[in-house]
Amino acid sequence: MNDSLRGRAAPEAIPHNPYARMRMNAIEIIAKKRDGQTLTREEINDFVQGFVRGDVPDYQVAAWLMAVFLRGMSYQETADLTLAIVNSGDRLDLSGIAPFVVDKHSSGGVGDKTTLVVAPIVAACGLPVAKMSGRALGFTGGTLDKLESIRGFRADLTTEEFLAQVREHGIVVSGQSKDLAPADGKLYALRDVTATVDSIPLIAASIMSKKIASGANGIVLDVKVGRGAFMETEERALELAQTMVRIGRSLGRRVTAVLSDMNQPLGLAVGNAVEVREAIDTLNGRGPADFLQHCLTIAGQMVLLAGRAKDEHEARELLLHQLHSGAGLAKFKEMVAAQGGDTAYVDDPDRLPKARIVEPLPAPQSGYIAAIDARQVGLTAALLGAGRQKKGDPVDYAVGIVLAHKVGDYVKSGEPLLTIHANAADKLRQAQLRLREAIRFSDAPPQPYPLIHRILRDTDVA
Ligand code: URA
Description:
single chain, alpha+beta, 18 helices, binds uracil, Pyrimidine Nucleoside Phosphorylase, Chain A, domain 2, Transferase, Pyrimidine Nucleoside Phosphorylase, Chain A, domain 3, disordered N terminus, Aldehyde Oxidoreductase, domain 3
């Protein structure tokens, strides 16, 4: 089968240099970045392809990642890194499948199960969603880990399977494969264990490479801001958003970035199976209000990018109809079935993996909840086993944290603040200590956090 039949596009041309492989010296490239110099497109491409081939070992890439983390990258270097990652695999052209395909991506948050609701409700509007997702990274969760808590669910589709599924079902959520942005999978896993995650160029290249490789025409970027985000301030979140929007636009994509709050966890559940359950509840019309509003905003921007609604109000009505009619839930089940998952888990979420210990954490005092430190909650979920401590660790699907309250709620002393789902008594104890520290109280009602800080369209970016 030739490439065009497969829906693959030719890789973006990197000027061919017959000496590139001979000339590439990983140590020089690391030293150059360590010293704050600018890398050329060829150097970046050689280094990334060398890593994927296995010629550049993990320890050299780890050193380079730290140099990038500390020294940063120019916009041009970031765009070149994005293309180098794209060029490590196939680049899909979905134009033969549908005139406009949409995608979304989050920069990483705590309790961020947005894709599990947004992808099916958008696809239920008849708008194909082709999404390449990631795994847990640092204190943030990963969509693929969450979905894999459904027995049998496959997040490692081949390029052919990915394409066939968008064509047949109009919805696919899969991971980087050996075919699609494989360099991102390898870099992502190394960043996770080398404290090099929260870097604007590395996040921008990681996200945009997946978005460009998987071929969608319209991309909504959910850029998280706050304690539970890689970007703690609105200023840094805006810089990340602008970088990604520029990269997408320069490659012919329509891109909108939504800066959304991540000071406290999104919704109530943080973990894997507990988040899948909350997403299914939301698709059944019983989700937490903040999470539902967030999903409607992200999904609404996807519908608007595709021109399926004339304004935000119309987009919202269309999406609410998919929720209330059950069409969104049906689409989620269709996706689970297409990817080998057991749909009985969707019909009856009690089948999802359960932790041996489920223990409430009582409020130590009465008062208003002034803060729930999302980063601490995410780190605690990872410590319980929901994330990875080191590369390749398995995740425990059953463990996590389910909040009973959100910032602004009044609680009485002794009332449960949250429940901890654990599989080991020592981890439960550590989690209790951390979570007590993560929650602050006040006598007066606190200022509520905005759910959405701002929306940036490609026309707003210079
Ligand atoms: N999501 C990604 O895909 N990559 C990152 O680096 C962070 C969030």
